């Protein structure tokens, strides 16, 4: 959304996630890992990703 941050709903662990330009050309794949244990009290999870 801002400063390289995005909000994604219903994400699964280890899906194919790509950054794309305005013409939908893939720029890079974003690799990330979700935590193994989820906080059931949290409204959302956070994860850091790297665009490669």
From TrEMBL:
Q: Which domain of life is it from?
A: Bacteria
- State the protein's name: Beta-fimbriae usher protein
